[in-house]
Amino acid sequence: MILALLLMVVTLSAQTGVKISAKYKKGDNMLYRQTSTINVGGKDIHVKSDCRYVVTAASSKGFTIDSNIEKVESDGDPNDIMGRMMNITMEILKDVKCTYVTDADGKIIDIKNYDEVLQKSEIFVDKLVKGLLAQLPAEASQIMTEDMIKSTIMEKMTKENLIKAATQEPTPFSLNGKTIATGAMEKVTSLNDLNMKNMYFLTTPDAKKVKVTSTLDMTKDELKKMIVDQVKKIMPSQAEMIEQNIDMVMSSGAIKFEFEQTTDYEFGSNGWVKTISFTNKSNTVGSVSESTCKMELVESNR
Hints:
Helix content is 34%, strand content 38%. The protein is of the alpha+beta class.
């Protein structure tokens, strides 16, 4: 009898879904520690960061939450281009503050201090691009100028994209406002203009544990268009040649875009996410990378 009832609950949950609605309170002060291992070109880079979230306002309409990266560490090799870029990124991200505004479910809908974040982003991009070009052969700067790269990156720094980064990437807010049912599918577009497909699974009937799988979901023609459009922005002098030869290059397998990710969420009794663990693997134009990451709630005032 008990087994039958349990199976019925699981089945109904899978069919109807469970809505994730945040139960934050004004004054909530949560510190998350994220530890990651990123393997690029056979080399591991270990990254550790602490991010604090403080709820400064709460009402029936939603919440205002301050986000602040307090600590970042990376062991990237400064003599290696990927290691250097990671070290520069980690240093610049420290003390970046963002004030999110959410709806009643805790879904982020606005960034209150967007102008301030944008100004800091411009400084970040400037340092990042200079660091990148310093690692490349002198000839590269003739094809990809500093201004071209900067403008391409800054085009992505819209408020919409920053909200997307906080809601599509694995964060404590990613599932807020969603109705999770086992087998439910969602199509999204990533910050890199890749069409992705997310599949959701209730690991427990009450949605205290949720699994999400993400895979690339693009046709060959969509990939071709995306590649050509990006080349036109960054290397306009090479665009015509790429456009004429894109079919041959893609057929040869020289250009590949692959991505898959599995993310597990676990919620605590206070309504905040307790842990997030994810692994992903990508192949971007021959550059293969793998990442494993765990984000844990290490400090909580309730």
